[in-house]
Design brief:
Layout (H helix, E strand, L loop, with lengths): L2 H7 L2 E7 L6 H7 L7 E6 L6 H8 L2 E4 L6 H14 L4 E5 L10 H9 L5 E5 L4 H6 L4 H18 L10 E5 H6 L11 H11 L4 E5 L13 H23 L10
Parallel strand pairs: 1-2, 1-4, 2-3, 5-7
Antiparallel strand pairs: 4-6, 5-6
Helix pairs in contact: 7-10, 9-10
Amino acid sequence: MNISNKKKLKKIIAVMPAFNAESTLEKTFHDIPKDSVDEVILIDDASTDNTVEIANKLGITVIKHDKNMGYGKNQKTCYDTALSMGAEIVIMIHPDYQYDSRVIPYASGFILTGICDVILGSRIRTRKETLNSGMPIYKYISNRFLTIIENFILGQNVGDFHSGFRVYNRNVLETIPYTNNSNDFVFDTEFLAQCVYHGFRIGDIPIPTRYFDEASSINFKRSLKYGFQTILVMLKYLIQKTGLFKFKIFKS
């Protein structure tokens, strides 16, 4: 059975955690190959612009938070909603037009064929390509530093642990206790540590990216905080593996 036939047996939903994405949402949405997903869901984290109005105009399923609750909480709502709607494969892509949505059918193919349980879009195919795309040098250096540490501690060989493009098998989302995770940006790091702890197979594919003013991006101060939080997650993982202490983020 080829991938296109398997796709008919699997409900694929793309989720977008959104905050003030009015200038980029439409471009992101139109880049998604229409036969690669069954539905697109946008979770709006109390945007103050026209994100919701544009999403409704595009025919996207929209759920709104009454108040801004953070990036991690936004993803929790994304996954809760996708699972409740019967998704068997969930694609998370930021609506800021930073990640190239056209790779979706290729990324989901690794899940459909049973090769991987989780696929990440890697922005770091080569140093030159990454920097030419506009990634700030301090982000490139911190990404390389943290990814090396995470690969070593988690026993993986992933090119970019901090990508905002991710594809999950339903079983991953049903197993990982992501509701125990942070509501901040470190949610993503916690989730991948949980995936490794529970034995899920993680892979990655190169994904073209764009950096510009409208693309959501945390500043240097927030990046520094995120880096320390990432190291803390790795320490929790090591302690959890020794059995000396049990953290709720790793609870089944």
